[in-house]
Amino acid sequence: MPGASIPSSFEIRIRISHLLKTPLPAGESPQFMWQHMIYLYIFCNDNIFVHLCFQTILDVKVIIASLSHANEIVSLLGRKTQKGRMMARSTKPKTKFQADQDELKLRAAWLYYIEGLTQEQVAQNLDISRIKAFRLLAATRDEGIVQISLNSHAEPLIRLQRALEKHLGLFEAIVVPSSDQSEASISAVIGHATGRYLSDRLQDGLTVGVGWGATLQACMSHLKWREINDLSVISLLGGLTHSMADNPSAVAWRLAEFYKTELFQITAPVFVPHVALAKELWEIQELKALKSKVSDIDLAVLSVADVSKQASIFRRGLLTTQDAESLQAAGAVGDVLCQFVDEAGEIVDHPINKRAMAINPTQLRKVPKVIISAGGIRKAKIIRASIMTTRAQVLITDEATAQELLSLESLV
Predict the structure, then answer these.
(1) Which of 199, 228, 253, 309 would disulfide-bridge 224, Cβ 3.0–4.6 Å?
(2) What family does the database annotate (predicted)?
(3) Can you point out the beta strands (E) in 48-105?
C-alpha cells in the first residue's frame, strides 16, 4: 500500500457505485453513502480501498450510532478500524483462518446490532449453528469489536426503573419523562407508553382483562395493529349510564374493536344503589359465568385513582365528596377497579365496595401478568397499595411519581 493516497469523498462515492454496480443518485444523503461503505467493508473482500478511507471516516462511530437502536450507541468497527490502520504498517499477515473468523464476527455483529436480526436469524443467515452465532456475538463484545453504551439522556430513567423494580419487587418498571404534572399530560404520556407496551405483548390465544380511566383511554390511541388470533377481552368492571370516552365498557370495547376480537362485559352499572341488588345481579347466569372467566385471564391492564376530588370517580359524580370523606375515614387511599383499598392493599370494609359491580382486584393475584398504568405524585400511595392488592408485576408511571414511590417504604 506504499504511495497510496487517501481518497476524497467523491472518489469514495464513485468506488462504492462501481462495487455495487449501481449508480448512487446525486441527491442521496451522506448517511446512505457511509452505510454502504461500512457494508462493503464487512461483506466485500476489497478492504484495501476502504482502509485508505479511514482518514476520511472521522465520524464513523457517530454514523454507526445513527443507524443503531434508539437506546443504544453501537460503536461497531471501533476496534476493527484501529486494526485497519495498523494493517498498512504490519509485516505479519493474519492466517486465512483468523481472517475468516474476524469476517464472520463482523458479519454476525452487523446482522444482529445494525439490522436487528435475532440470534437464530443470524445463525440461519450465516449458515452456522445458533450456539456458534451466540459465541461469535459474545466474542465481538469481549474483543471490543462492538462497544455498547446507553444514551446519556435515557440513563437516568433506566436507573430509576431499576431502582423501582428493586424497591417494589416488580418484574419490570417503565418510567416516562414528566415535565408537566397536569392530569391530562400525565395520562397522555403514560397512556402512550402503555399502548406500545401492551401491543408488543399481545399474542394469539390470550385473554386480556381491562380496567378503566383516562390513562387507559389514552393507551387505546397508541395500539399497534397486527393480526392476533383468538384474542379475548374482558371488561373488569361495569359501565356508566352516561359517560364520555372513558366509560369502563368503552375502554375494553376499543381494545376488542381494534384487534377485531370478542369482548365480554359486565352489563350493569359500576355502582348500584344497594348491596342486596349487587348480590342479585351477580346471581344472573351470564354475569356469574363472566366472573368465573377471571381465572382464564393471562394479562390484565388497569389504572388506579386516589381518594380526592380530582379522581374521575368523584369528578364524574359516581360518588360524592361525602363518600370520599367516609372512605378516607375507613382508611382508604384509593381505588383499584372501583374498590377502595388501604395503604397495605387490603380492601376496606365499607358499603361502597359491596355495591361495586366489578371483579374483586385480589382475584388478579393469580393472573400471570398484571400491569398497573398510572401516574401523578398524589397517586403514589395507591399505586404502591395496588401492587400489593393485585401482586402486579409491571408498573408504567412517570418520573416524578417514580421518585415519590422510592420515598415510600419498600415492599421487598
Answers:
(1) 199
(2) Belongs to the SorC transcriptional regulatory family.
(3) 72-74
